[in-house]
Amino acid sequence: MPRYPTIEDVIGQTPLVQLQRLPGAAGAARGNVVLGKLEGNNPAGSVKDRPAMSMIRRAEERGDIRPGDTLIEATSGNTGIALAMAAAIRGYRMVLIMPEDLSIERAQTMKAFGAELILTPRSGGMEYARDLAEQMRNDGKGHVLDQFANADNPRIHYETTGPELWQQTQGRITHFVSAMGTTGTITGVSRYLKERNPGVRIVGAQPSEGSRIPGIRKWPEAYLPKIYDASSVDELVLVSQADAEDMARRLAREEGLFAGISAAGACWVALQIAQQVRDATIAFVVCDRGERYLSTGVFPA
């Protein structure tokens, strides 16, 4: 009997595509190439499929969890969806804690995978959700994988996302841009790429003051993810909510790339870089797809 791939088997190996119109004539004249890594092509629809499966499988290997256990996680959306999928595959009860103001599409998708949701006040943000997950763990209500402190998060990007980018660009990548949430993607990819070429520049996208961009965070010092290695990021660029939302609309209309808001923020940063350098190969992470944001009003009805 042939062995057919499972859902787990098709996580990763996502396409890397070149933007054609947004870089404009100036970008082309400078000899720059801007590339988007389509992580929305993963089975649960985002870059978080990689760490979600990694955290569960490696926790199983260590004997920390076993099928039938309850898993608890604070999430702004994509990690929750990915964990809900992974829990469904591996046989876990999944309890997800998320602020009440996040898009309805993401909440509905988590429920579709069988997860249970606890919504927290908008005013408390992700900090309150993280505190509640920790309290539930301390009360013995389940296991917290903790994407913010779990080394299996950046590890999977070191093992898969980084090598894919290197291979897909044939080692030509000069800049890597990623939105920063848990910081797992940027930390793991940076480690791999800089081992291959210390000259690769790693740029993180963070929200400007007052901006609320799903998937991009600037954490207070007390909540800074433990997995984050500041030395792995060469530059932080602030993105406004208006610029990220406008770029999301432009990506869809001018490139046919229907991406989420954090992906658009990373794209905005990549295009800023393309206006400043020459003969560069600039790759950014398209974290997820735009369908998850239709209820937010970012895209025209």
Which key features would you list for this structure?
single chain; 301 residues; alpha/beta; 6-stranded mixed beta sheet; 4-stranded parallel beta sheet; 9 helices; 10 strands; 38% helix; 17% strand; EC 2.5.1.47
Question: If you had to describe this structure to a student in words, what would you say it looks like?
Answer:
- The chain is α/β, with parallel strands linked by helices and 301 residues long.
- It is 38% helix and 17% strand.
- The chain is built from nine helices and ten strands.
- Strand 7 (175-179), helix 7 and strand 8 (201-207) form a beta-alpha-beta unit.
- InterPro entries: Cys_synth, Cys_Synth/Cystath_Beta-Synth, CysM, P-phosphate_BS, TrpB-like_PALP, TrpB-like_PALP_sf.
- Its cofactor is pyridoxal 5'-phosphate.
- One of its GO terms (molecular function) is cysteine synthase activity.
- It catalyses: O-acetyl-L-serine + hydrogen sulfide = L-cysteine + acetate.
Q: In brief, what are we looking at here?
A:
This protein is 38% helix and 17% strand. It is an alpha/beta fold and 301 residues long.
Element order, helices and strands? EHEHEHEHEHEHEHEEHHE
β-strand percent reads 15-25%
- Helix and strand content put the structural class at alpha/beta
Spatial shape: globular
Separation of termini?
49 Å
Supply the number of helical segments.
Answer: 9
Share of helix, binned: 25-40%
Mean pLDDT metric: 94
Unreliable segments of 5+ consecutive residues: none
Q: State the major sheet.
A: 6 strands, mixed
Strand tally is: 10
In which order are the strands of the major sheet placed?
A: 1-2-10-7-8-9
Computed Rg: 18 Å
Pathway: Amino-acid biosynthesis; L-cysteine biosynthesis; L-cysteine from L-serine: step 2/2
Domain Tryptophan synthase beta chain-like PALP: 7-288
Enzyme class: transferase
Family: Belongs to the cysteine synthase/cystathionine beta-synthase family.
